[in-house]
Amino acid sequence: MKNNFFLRKPISILLFVLLTFLTACSSHAELPFVNLYSDQDPDAVEQMINDDSLVLAIASVVSPKESLDQYKDFIVYLEKKLDRPITVIQKQTYGEVNQLLQDGKADITITCSLAFRIGKQAGYLEGLAAPVVDGAQIYQSYIITNIHNPYESLDDLQGKRFAFVDPISYSGRLSVLDLLNQKDQNAELYFEDTFYTYSHDYSIKAAANNSVDGAAVDSLVFDQLLAEDDIDVKSLKIIGKGEWAGTPPIVIHSELDPALKAELKDIILSMDEDSTGKRILTDLHVDKYNEINEVDYAIIDNLIKLLGEQL
Asked: What is the CATH number of domain 138-245?
């Protein structure tokens, strides 16, 4: 029986049991901030936002606190360069972030490649810049399992427990749907149980702890944690890889003021030419930001149909 509960709730039971102690977000008093676990209605949130503020929405690609900590200096940098305040709205899922932009309640987001393409096809999102990491502007999905497990490929995970990151994550879900489709299989019938963790590092921890038999995660996050000798990553092995696709970009609402869009783009694309910007990029493990290369996202455009009615 599949865990459809995880499609409806922003935080899965699996995530809660494993990682309750990690879910508290810091207040970041120096930045206007709306907590992702807030039950405030949209009107109340809007009242907290300064009319002059640029609203940046962010999903918990890594754990909620880490996601915000990771981009704090980047946000402050943008504020200073733009000479205008930025309000941060953090949400648990990519879908929630896309909805904010679709509804005109956010201006800019750092999102996953699939969420970008969904919004672009619907006409409410536009790509601004894509990160270059270790000289490349592409990434892929890793299928992982604990090193002590006998599994050596996706074939070995049939009938097992599997963790996805987010319903509209490329590396954390869609890439696996593609691999299964090539076998004339679908996730609901292939795996015994599937779960959503809503964070790549939570999926890594779930696989490391054997709370699931396998998981699909972002190669950029995995490789970064591996370079940092992360204890969970060191207990894992990669048993499959997805197709290469364009890196998770910075995107904007398609109706953002053209002058502001041009200013934002210039600031972000030139960060590597500025000593402060270069330091922030280094902390983010990013070489620099480049123009969006539409060709890099063609694989995702071709696979979106696999999501079916979820769109």
From this structure: 3.40.190.10
Mean local confidence (pLDDT), 185-197: 94
What pTM was estimated for this model as a whole?
A: 0.83
Bridge partners of 194, per DSSP, are 162
Average pLDDT over residues 90-119: 93
CATH of region 23-132+249-310: 3.40.190.10
**Could you state, in order of their start, the residue ranges of all structural domains in the chain?**
23-132+249-310, 138-245
Q: Is the pLDDT of residue 303 over 50?
A: yes
Cβ-count burial of 34 within 10 angstroms (0-12 exposed, 13-18 middle, 19+ buried)? middle
What is the C-alpha to C-alpha distance for residues 168 and 129, in angstroms, rounded to an integer? 20
Instruction: Say which residue the tokens 């956010």 belong to.
Output: 106
